[in-house]
Design goal:
One of its GO terms (molecular function) is sigma factor antagonist activity. This protein is of the alpha+beta class. The protein is built from eight helices and 20 strands. It has three domains: 88 residues, no CATH class; 148 residues, Jelly Rolls, CATH 2.60.120; 73 residues, 3-Layer(bab) Sandwich (Phage tail protein beta-alpha-beta fold), CATH 3.55.50. The longest helix is centred in the N-terminal third of the chain and has 21 residues.
């Protein structure tokens, strides 16, 4: 099933505007589309943020080898330039994994139904969009699990595993709370991602404001757009510009900047049933910078080989074992 939404339209507008300078009429049409709804404005901002993150990395020396490894044959010349750009933008706009769309019905508040809980899960490589009863849009990332109990004074959900991105419908009388087990993220109307990892979790804020409450930390933390907070069960780390790179998975990409190779491999493995195993503790500490498609372990390994970071020791359908080059 094909789903047309504001993100798809934003990708098309991005492709058209970057294929050639827009005419006055095209600029007016774009401004009219962007101003037509909050969803359109939000989708455009997210598309620009993703491409800015990718563009900033493209100029780095490490990306030369990555582009060679990932190069694909050029499209036939019969396609107009903007159509070629639109095809590329569509790839960026859609994740490599499987997408599905679900809706969440409004929970009842009768005594017999208060304990009812809706369960949502994704398999490895799958992403799922869930429309909640209040109008909130919830995107589950790969290998994730979220429970939505019946709501009363709060719109509370439980992130049990993995990661979710939440575009929260405004309702000042009913805060939206993401419960992670290690702390809560509270919002009224905003867009943010929450990931559960080990004993802790992380939050990346795209829009609005959220309050992060961690029982082990005395004071709540208020985040503003673009910020990312990570809690590992011991300490809190706050970044003022980490949200963009932390949410490129929404566009089907993983962005690494000076990331330990072992951590990058672990992240790639989240999206693919075919696992990468690095049999070299020393090589695991090497730093990697690059942008890769989620689930595309073959290109990822080819890039590591091309750049001299690792070599294939052996491989089969289930895994690829690497050694330091």
């Amino acid at each position: 099933m094909t789903i047309t939404n504001a993100s798809d339209e934003a990708a098309r507008w991005y492709a058209r505007r970057h294929a050639a300078a827009p005419t006055a009429a095209e600029q007016a049409a774009f401004e009219a589309w962007r101003g037509d709804s909050a969803a359109n404005a939000k989708a455009w901002a997210a598309t620009e943020a993703t491409h800015d993150a990718l563009g900033g990395l493209a100029a780095l020396p490490e990306m030369t080898a990555l582009r060679s490894a990932a190069r694909r044959p050029a499209p036939p010349p019969r396609f107009a330039p903007w159509r070629i750009a639109a095809s590329v933008a569509a790839l960026v706009a859609g994740a490599a994994g499987t997408y599905s769309l679900m809706s969440h019905r409004a929970p009842t508040t009768t005594a017999s139904a208060v304990a009812a809980v809706a369960h949502y899960r994704t398999a490895i490589g799958e992403q799922r969009i869930v429309a909640l009863a209040d109008g909130t849009r919830m995107t589950l990332n790969t290998d994730s699990q979220i429970d939505v109990p019946a709501w009363q004074s709060e719109r509370r959900i439980r992130l049990l595993r993995g990661e979710g991105y939440f575009e929260v419908a405004k309702d000042k009388n009913h805060p939206f709370v993401v419960e992670t087990g290690a702390g809560d993220v509270v919002a009224v109307g905003t867009a943010f991602a929450v990931r559960k990892a080990g004993r802790g979790f992380s939050v990346a804020l795209a829009e609005g404001k959220v309050r992060v409450t961690i029982p082990a930390v005395a004071e709540p933390t208020l985040l503003t757009p673009g910020e990312r907070l990570a809690y590992d069960g011991v300490a809190v780390k706050r970044e003022t510009s980490g949200a963009g790179e932390a949410t490129t998975w929404l566009a089907g990409n993983l962005t690494f900047r000076d990331t330990a190779l072992g951590d990058a491999i672990a992240e790639m493995n989240r999206y693919s049933p075919r696992k990468i195993v690095l049999d070299d503790p020393a090589a695991a500490h090497r730093k990697l910078t690059g942008v890769f498609r989620t689930g595309d372990v073959a290109t990822f390994v080819a890039a590591l080989t091309a750049y001299g970071m690792a070599r294939i020791e052996r491989e089969d359908a289930a895994e690829i074992r690497l050694k330091g080059a």
